[in-house]
Amino acid sequence: MSRQYRSHDSDRHELDVPIVFTVAIALGLTAAVYGALIPFEDSYLETLLAERGFTQYIAIFLAGMVVAFTLLKLFKLQWEMHTLRYNWLPTSFSLEYPQGDAVATLQQNLANSRSLLAVRCSRVLAAYMHSGTRKAAAELALDDASFYTTASESSYTFPRILVWAIPLMGFIGTVVGISDAVTGFSQFLQEAGEIERIKEGIAQVTTGLSVAFDTTLLALLLSVVVMVPLVLVERFEARLLLAIDVYINDRLLPRLNEPGEKIDDTIVHRAVNRAFDERLPNAEILVEPAETYARQAAKLLAEQFVVEVKKVRDVTEELLEQTAQLTEKLAGDRTQFLQAFEQQQQTSHQAMKTLVHQIQSTQQDLMAEMQAGNAQVSEGLSDRTRQLSDRLHQAATVLEQRIAALEHYAAQVSEVRELQQSLQHTLQTLTETAQLQKVLLGVQDQLAQLNPTLQQMQRPRKIVLFEQDT
Asked: Phi and psi at residue 52, in whole multiples of 5°?
């Protein structure tokens, strides 16, 4: 029996959540979130989750781990709370004899169950069987309660770290975004001479600031969303452990027997019979002298009966006194047990208050640091903006001068074009004039050739008329 008791005592992880399942579910939730963003392409939600740096993916994964831990823990606690309705300690089993078959059978049945309540009851019964006293079983129940309370508090350390890590990832994203914005602003100041470079620099600065504020927004939102269910599940687990402790204290421990606190009726009956046999005379001996010794026997019987009645009364008074002592002891044990539970509950409540205060202080410190950082960034951006405005004003002045020069150049180009057209027209006119000159020269040549003929025609002519016979 003690070997089995020790084996159960070394394995107390009924409410633990496997980290492998938590990571697997977190990966699935992260993939589901980004898969659900496919229909919302080019939306603000898709930009917030997928286009604001690597910290967004890490924050979603950490939040998924906290959600997975909370869901797995909630399922376990709901099943354990449901098992409180079962009748694990039937009244047909007598628990007065630690070495009895009924106690061994009940302890074995409870040990084979997967319920936390059944396993804890089996450990209490194993201690009762091993020690034979109710006091040892009550001490084990109290130690079990302290162990599970401590284990419950320590099991929430990892998800609390994840909840604290989510705002830190947002702060890291803020630093990265502001760094990108400052870098882009520096490059923008170096290349502020061209309009396209100015547009690209302003876009890079605004993108870096968007990354900074969007990462902080997502991280704070996720931390609040996952922290509230985690605290509620932790309170639910504390209520479950308290209900199990009350169940063991009210339904199991009072049924256990304490040696020396109760006298068996069979022993009393045997003692009375033995006293009658020793004190009363034998009936066969009294047959012959019945008449002689009848009165003496009756008197002796009466005296012995009175003595035995006194003995029985003394035994009864002693039994009542022991019963009263047992009642007082039970009341004291119950009071001590309840006081211990109240102290544990107060300690848990104080620890919860301390944790909430620490979380609030951490959030206030983070908000103060973020506000201080934002104020510094705002002042730096204001100075940079004023410098940028001056640079832009200078660039605009230079640009206006260049535009005026370009307009002047355009007017000159227009005049050149008009002059070119005039030259082309003049050239065309000259070309036509050259062709006319060539024609006149040809006519002059022809006239020069005709001049001898004309001179001959100007001479006097003699006309002779003659007839010809046909």
From this structure: -120, 25
Q: Are 155 and 357 in contact (CB under 8 A)?
A: no
For residues 173 and 212, the answer to whether their CB atoms sit within 8 Å is yes
pLDDT digits (tens, 9 = 90+) for 304-351: 767 776 777 777 777 778 777 777 776 777 777 677 767 777 776 676
**What is the rounded distance in angstroms from the CA atom of residue 257 to the CA atom of residue 250?**
14
DSSP H or E segment with residue 22: helix 19-36
Sequence-ordered list of residues with C-beta below 8 angstroms from that of 200, at least 6 positions apart, any chain? 188
pLDDT tens for each residue of 375-405: 776 676 677 767 766 777 776 777 777 777 6
- Tell me which DSSP letter residue 251 carries: I
Closest CA to 214 of 177, 162, 185: 177
Give residue for tokens 């003595």: 307
CB atoms within 10 A of CB 374: 16
Residue 242 has pLDDT above 50, yes or no: yes
CA distance 108 to 100: 13
Q: Tell me how far CA of residue 466 lies from CA of 42, 462, 463, 469, in angstroms.
A: 117, 13, 10, 10
Indicate the length of the chain as a whole number: 470
C-alpha 320/C-alpha 333 separation (Å) is 20
Is 56:30 a contact under the CB 8 Å cutoff? no
3-state helix, strand, coil in the chain (%, to 5): 85, 0, 15
CB-neighbour burial class of residue 464 (10 A; exposed 0-12, middle 13-18, buried 19+): exposed
Tokens standing for residue 287: 């047959």
Residue 108 is encoded by which pair of tokens?
């074995």
Q: Which two tokens stand for residue 31?
A: 């993939």
Kindly state the tokens that stand for 416. 């050149």
Cα 40 from chain centroid? 24
Confidence (pLDDT) at 457: 60
